[in-house]
Amino acid sequence: MPTGFIFDLDGVIVDTAKYHFKAWQSLAKNLQYNFTEQDNEQFKGVSRVRSLELLLEMAQYKATEKEKEQWLIDKNTHYLSLISHMNNSEILPGITEILKALKAQQIPVALGSASKNAQPILEKVGLLSYFDVLVDGNEVTMAKPNPEVFLTAAKGLGVAPEDCVVFEDAQAGVAAAKAAKMTCVGIGDPAILFNADHCFASTAEITPSFVQSLIA
Ligand code: B16
Ligand code: MG
User: Fold this and answer.
1) From the CA of 178, how far away is ligand 1's center (Å)?
2) What are the tens digits of pLDDT across the range 167-188?
3) Which ligand 1 atom is nearest residue 11's CA?
């Protein structure tokens, strides 16, 4: 059976964390809370709804259901305006080369992301055609660290979970990949992503020979 490759989006293919940060920060300002880059770390790989819950906990604000609904819309509207100018210059280093190499060998490739905006982002940066399967926040009900997103991606690819490799930048994502019994390549601080099977400080450090070594 071939190896299936599954990529997280934010922090692996593109870095949209800075846009999520700006959008959450402006919402936090309305709650008189000073939302920092450090706070934003906890939001990586986490769903939009859970992110709002975290923000409300940080701001110690008890919101009504109606307020929450409205703020989720406001945050996403702001985020969409911030990403509207994204283009291929925002693809993280080495990612296009990896995707091209996998396509040339007809290796099955999926996206496994918590984002509900994954498809438009891949379109904007011109990478949509490299993915055989897209699983994002619109398809899954259980957020990472639950393995649902990656198990659904493996199913879509027709590859057994044990034969899949996941590229992830978030601790919750690494946990999800390991819960799915997949090989996990962490992108980021090894002290945070210690459960990953391999870890690189950035995508720029992933060599073609390493990628090749993952293919069965
Ligand atoms: P959206 P990933 C995640 O993407 C982001 O890391 C996280 O910060 C964001 O809250 C989540 O997507 C939901 O995004 O608001 O666009 O639906 O890392 O799983 O690709
Ligand atoms: Mg991520």
Assistant:
1) 19
2) 999 999 999 999 999 999 999 9
3) 18
Nearest ligand, CA 44:
1
Provide the whole-model pTM.
0.93
Please tell me the class of the 4-15+87-213 domain. alpha beta
- Ligand 2 centroid to 214 CA: how many Å? 21
* 17-83 fold: DNA polymerase; domain 1 (1.10.150)
Domain boundaries, the chain: 4-15+87-213, 17-83
Please, are residues 91 and 125 in contact by the beta-carbon 8 Å criterion?
Answer: yes
Same fold, 4-15+87-213 and 17-83: no
Pocket of ligand 1 (CB under 6 A): 8-11, 20, 43-48, 51, 76, 113-117, 137, 170
Q: What confidence score (pLDDT) does residue 129 get?
A: 98
Q: Which residues of the chain have pLDDT under 70?
A: none
